């Protein structure tokens, strides 16, 4: 099913590769096959490449899901010292901006119902804006704080066996992502493995 989706539908941006989308959908498929129920959430949706594939997959699986996406729709925030890398000089505040209107247009073109959209900086979110129980999380915040903040928010709401996939963990241009995950893991009972540029965190 995953291969079929990736053959049939194009990527709507160049910020993610098909191989990475395949990993995200594979990990999503694993948790959908458990007895647990919960929401699917994505922090950092940009144009909606992974969002669209997640929506298609959930629809095909006929999973009774609630899908939430969180994004500022204003591009990258300012870097902190944890994000500095000579390999990542191209990443500046405001880069990778994509309007909510364009995100919704991409859903309309795809003929899909859009997810629940939360517009704003992750640092301004409160626990009240996070689903009561979460089964799967995809984090694509690029920077240290934009990964660490969602990890802190979602932890109390994770269902047993929930899976978190974090983009750019192995990307030397965005070192803050790995620093945030590694720091968070020192205080939380979860296991990490890495595939392509992605960190896959399984909870216990």
Overview of this protein structure:
The chain has about 200 residues and is α/β, with parallel strands linked by helices. It has a single domain, classed as 3-Layer(aba) Sandwich (Rossmann fold), CATH 3.40.50. Helices cover about 35% and strands about 20% of the residues. It is built from six helices and seven strands. The protein has helices spanning about 1-10, 20-30, 50-60, 100-110, 145-155, 175-185; strands spanning about 40-45, 65-70, 115-120, 135-140, 160-165, 190-195, 200-204. The chain has a seven-stranded mixed beta sheet with strand order 3-2-1-4-5-7-6, sandwiched between helices. Helix 3 links the parallel strand 1 and strand 2. Helix 2 runs parallel beside helix 3 and helix 5 (about 145-155) runs parallel beside helix 6 (about 175-185). The protein starts with a helix and ends with a strand. The relative contact order is 0.18. The mean pLDDT is about 90.
